[in-house]
């Protein structure tokens, strides 16, 4: 039985309105499933919601909550959103099916009606409100969760849309999993024998570690990283690890805050390390190598690109033209898009024929239907996460470095 | 043949009876399914091409991202949902999705659930009791 304090009991009894009552009932169902003893207050929430995921059922639920009086429906803690499912300004350019565009407009209105900040970003830890060591959160994206837990030392489980919404409306989550010290200890050890170079190399390394994780509760520990990786490198590593592994925490000894040394993350002697060598990273690329050089679309997303990554894409596309048979998409957050507009980066990228998408992350925007509408099948990306996801969406994904992706887009075939 | 009872952790969702679809593989609604056609669509999944609609899925662990938390409710509303999920290990997303969608879910069995049930067997899933009854041939 999950213990509740007086305010939590009042919410459950409906004294603070139906939205908080429904939310508390949801929290108790999930908390009971994981044997949570009580609830923990969260300081802010990152809510994943796109209409491909919510469908009419989830969208209808959000709109139903919005019909309650404002004091009953408004979120209790600051709540920001993951990418939504449509860039309205570019919908026609990429043949986004119109029924989904209309649904997305309803979704934005429904979220705003609950007092949610429509940030449309999965890199909120880089661009909106970086988490703090020990801070309890309700984060709703695997990539943002693993970054907050691992790189920042904050504490969250994967809080999918309905649970993040419940956290936003109550300010609480069940205290289980990665909110507790005992689940944050290492369970398996990896030694990096080579330094990943490109962002896609870091993603490939994350894929190798992630694929080997047997469940959500595993915590991989990485040694052998000589010198701190950049935020973007850790972003790609963590996003791939979380995507392939469905795990929300890693420790990197000497890099991440809870792992100054091995003794800090393992009880007793650490397990034997699995080795990652250059050949293993090359093997991830090989697994996605196609049988011919056809290319339809290049996607830079998952996670959304930082300002630095956008600048890199711009430099690689400067004074070049994307081949007419290929589409290049680069997805970033509204904040970074505004910065790119101001600094001329958007102009440089789009002068090549590439498309900058704002507030979306491609795989969360009806990628199957957009692919069918445009005749896209062979997709190339430097994101290990996105190639992992899109195989199930009817694409033939190919993993390459950013340079390889852009050289191929210009050539009109995989070079 | 007598009924067999498999015990797991107390689960989520309603008590249901249906036909099992089993594989030693993992599960994510976004990564693995074509939710419009109601089939496993990830080419490398051991159930690729198989319909999951109305089946009691018995798989190894919850994998993939967070979308399943929303998707199970939508899948249920469209009649394109598994009847129940039996996993060796769920994750929070699967539990959240089952709670939001009203889909039966049990995990943490005393045995490997992917070895304990065969595809085509008729099973009753009782989340409140954390129990799965595998019905013997001829029983209802």
How would you characterize this protein structure?
- The complex is a heterodimer of chains A (415) and B (140).
- Chain A is an alpha/beta fold.
- Chain A folds into 3 domains: 6-179, Aconitase, domain 3; 185-285, no CATH class; 290-411, Aconitase, domain 3.
- Helices cover 41% and strands 13% of the residues of chain A.
- Chain A is built from 17 helices and 14 strands.
- Chain A has helices at 6-12, 18-33, 51-65, 70-73, 98-113, 124-127, 142-150, 161-170, 199-211, 231-245, 278-287, 307-317, 334-343, 345-351, 367-374, 384-390, 402-411; strands at 39-41, 45-47, 79-81, 138-139, 172-174, 188-192, 220-223, 251-252, 273-276, 297-305, 327-332, 355-358, 378-381, 396-399.
- A 5-stranded parallel β-sheet of chain A has the order 12-11-10-13-14, with helices on both faces. A 4-stranded parallel β-sheet of chain A has the order 8-7-6-9.
- Chain A is globular and about 65 Å long.
- Chain B has one domain (4-134): Glucose Oxidase, domain 1.
- The termini of chain B are close together.
- Chain B is of the alpha/beta class and 140 residues long.
- Helix content of chain B is 20%, strand content 28%.
- The model of chain B has no long low-confidence stretch (mean pLDDT 94).
- The chains are: A alpha/beta (415), B alpha/beta (140).
- The A-B interface holds A 26, 29-30, 32-34, 48-49, 52-58, 61, 140-142, 157-163, 177, 214-217, 242-243, 245-246, 364, 368, 388-389, 391-394 and B 9-12, 28, 30-34, 41-45, 61-71, 73-78, 88-93, 95-97, 99-100, 105.
């Amino acid at each position: 039985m999950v213990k509740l304090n007086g305010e939590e009991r009042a919410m459950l009894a409906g004294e603070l309105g139906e939205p908080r009552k429904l939310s508390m009932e949801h929290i108790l169902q999930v908390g009971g499933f994981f044997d949570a003893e009580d609830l923990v207050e969260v300081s802010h929430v990152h809510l994943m919601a796109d209409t491909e995921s919510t469908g009419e059922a989830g969208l209808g639920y959000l709109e139903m909550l919005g019909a309650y009086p404002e004091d009953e429906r408004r979120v209790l803690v600051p709540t920001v959103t993951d990418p939504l499912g449509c860039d309205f300004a570019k919908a026609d350019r990429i043949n986004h099916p119109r029924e989904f565009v209309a649904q997305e407009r309803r979704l934005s209105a429904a979220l705003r009606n609950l007092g949610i900040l429509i940030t449309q970003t999965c890199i909120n830890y880089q661009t909106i409100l970086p988490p703090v060591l020990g801070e309890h959160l309700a984060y709703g994206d695997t990539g943002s969760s693993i970054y907050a837990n691992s790189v920042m030392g904050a504490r969250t489980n994967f809080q999918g849309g309905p649970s993040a919404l419940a956290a936003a409306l109550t300010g609480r989550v069940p205290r289980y999993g990665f909110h507790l010290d005992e689940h944050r200890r290492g369970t398996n050890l990896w030694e990096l024998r080579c330094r990943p170079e490109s962002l896609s190399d870091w993603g490939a390394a994350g894929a190798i570690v992630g694929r080997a994780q047997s469940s959500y509760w595993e915590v991989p520990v990485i040694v052998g990283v000589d010198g701190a990786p950049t935020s973007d490198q850790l972003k790609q590593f963590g996003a791939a690890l979380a995507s392939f592994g469905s795990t929300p925490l890693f420790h990197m000894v000497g890099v991440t805050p809870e792992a100054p040394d091995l003794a800090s993350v393992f009880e007793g002697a650490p397990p034997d390390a699995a080795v990652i060598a250059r050949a293993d990273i090359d093997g991830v690329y090989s697994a996605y190598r196609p049988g011919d050089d056809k290319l339809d679309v290049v996607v830079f997303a998952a996670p959304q690109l930082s300002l630095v990554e956008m600048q890199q894409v711009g430099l690689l596309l400067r004074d070049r033209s994307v081949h007419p048979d290929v589409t290049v998409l680069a997805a970033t957050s509204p904040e970074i898009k505004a910065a790119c507009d101001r600094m001329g980066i958007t102009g440089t990228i789009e002068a090549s024929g590439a498309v900058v998408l704002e507030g979306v992350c491609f795989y969360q925007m009806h990628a199957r239907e957009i692919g069918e509408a445009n005749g896209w099948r062979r997709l190339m990306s430097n994101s290990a996460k996105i190639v992992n996801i899109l195989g199930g969406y009817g694409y033939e994904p190919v993993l390459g470095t950013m340079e390889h992706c852009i050289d191929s887009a210009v050539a009109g075939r995989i070079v | 043949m007598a009924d067999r009872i498999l015990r797991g952790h107390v689960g989520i969702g309603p008590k249901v009876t249906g036909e099992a679809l089993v594989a030693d593989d993992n599960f994510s609604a976004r990564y693995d399914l074509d939710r419009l056609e109601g089939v496993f669509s990830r080419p490398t999944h051991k159930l690729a091409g198989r319909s999951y609609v109305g089946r009691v899925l018995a798989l190894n662990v919850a994998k993939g991202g967070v979308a399943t938390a929303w998707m199970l409710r939508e899948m249920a509303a469209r009649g394109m949902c598994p009847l129940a999920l039996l996993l060796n290990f769920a994750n929070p997303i699967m539990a959240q999705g089952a709670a939001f969608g009203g889909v039966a879910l049990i995990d943490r069995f005393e045995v490997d659930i992917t070895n304990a049930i065969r595809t085509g067997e008729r099973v009753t899933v009782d989340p409140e009791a954390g129990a799965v009854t595998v019905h013997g041939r001829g029983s209802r």
